[in-house]
User: Fold these one by one.
Assistant:
Number 1:
Amino acid sequence: MLISFSFGLSLLLPILLKILRDWSKIYYMSFVLNIKLPS
């Protein structure tokens, strides 16, 4: 059980990291654009 859980986690971790990195990039870009554009 624990072995299959850690195996699934090792498979899911790069996908989660990629999603997190894409979201942080989108959030950062929107933050920069909100600062540059007059609200």
Note: Residues 1-39 form one domain.
Number 2:
Amino acid sequence: MSSPPPVCPKCAAPRTDDNCCPHCGVIFAKVRPRPGMPSSEYEDAEPVPGPPTVACEPVASAVVVVRVIFLVILSFYSFRILTHTIASNYVGEIFLHLVNLPFHEAGHVLFSPFGRFVQVAGGTIMQLLVPAVVAFSFLMRRDRYAAAVGIWWFGESTADVAPYADDARTGQLPLLGGVTGSEVEDYHDWEVMLGKLGILSWDHAIGRFFFITGGIVMTAAIIWGLIVSFRQTEGVSR
């Protein structure tokens, strides 16, 4: 029996120990070299440029079921968040807000050497940066399902910013320490940031932007996660 060609028989990308091509996703067991094609043509083929982009490992049906159930749970949270108004601050009252809050507060500390404005903005920056980095790291590891979940977290964290930005002028949202922005001067992040930029009257528009963007990202992440989950069963079911 001849050894497998060193490159993918479909796209000529370098082969790995996986059971499918990391670039085009073809399953090697289903693809055979054309009859009479010498192995030298594989060896001399020009590899596809760029890093691997496809997670090849097929997953068992039971794992897919668990993954889909988890995505259904995320869908439920997404639906609940998006069917409440920004002013209701529903997104800030669910347990996921407690996940985002430590990163938000850490951002104020980490960005404090860069001046007052950046320190204040650092809370929102870090709140969005952490889930973005998590999603990107999983994507680089070719774990697309985990990347989809990370992207969903980024979307949820984006929507979580909306009530805070929307509250910049009214200052009625309860903040850390049990006070509101109207009770303590120069304490509300978005009042400070928008005030310094001279666009305090844009607070509702900015809040809607974060809310709508978060909703789109959450929805897209769930759809992608479902697609990834079902596609990864091909190596098992076929």
Note: Residues 61-237 form one domain.
Number 3:
Amino acid sequence: MRALHARLPEGHNSSRSSRRSPSTVLVRHRASWHDVHRTVTEVSRRISNGSRRLSRTLAEVDRCRDAGNVDGARQLLNDVLVVEVVPHYQDILRANLAALDDEF
């Protein structure tokens, strides 16, 4: 995604790389360049924001867990899970919740 986003401002034709992309990422042929750029920019923004949010949350969860505040750690994970839009990051949060439940 980052490589595709980096190429957009340069005006590269994305048809060659889109053939190698998963079908879920393919954009209808009729979509305008502006629509493609806007979509890729939004996806990139969501991934970047989610990555930062996830990193901060997991660090805070570790601090809570180390202090014995399991309920606080669980609440942090649940709070972020409510607002997270990136499916992979949602999976990571759920896995951390499950591990927290198994641990304590």
Note: DSSP finds five helices and no strands in the chain.
Number 4:
Amino acid sequence: MKTSINLERMITLDVIALDVSNGRSYVVHYSDNKCLFEGWMIHNQEGLNGLLARSQLCQTVPEIVLEATGVYSRVIERFCQDHHFDYYLLNPLEARKQTDSLRVNKTDKSDAHKLALTHYFMERKKKVGIDKEYQEMTTLSRWYESNGYCIQIEPLRRRLEPLNA
């Protein structure tokens, strides 16, 4: 991760940053390092249509920045993939480290602003969408493990081992 400042990037970049929570996000839109919009968005069709309309107002194709919040951020990820937006899905620890230099009290609003502002000078890795099938398998695997099926099967497996020997 580089922290060098790219002046061309700072001048010509539209950034939409979201602080994602359960069912809603705080959205900020920066262009030329100036905040043009901020407000709440509900994670429903109307909210996503509003986000699409906001992106169409941008001077350039916007880069969308958000923290990975599991199931909460998947709605926004899917939106970005469906509309072919470049998006940056940050690990929460990575985002915290990158935004710590901007001293502001922690709130949903300030988090979104800090994500947008740091995007102008941080080199971040674009998120590449994964196949739906792979994502579904990962989700099912986590569900399987969280429901204790692995724990229930293991004692049975141990009891069957002597029979197979």
Note: The domain at 7-129 is CATH 3.30.420.10 (Nucleotidyltransferase; domain 5).
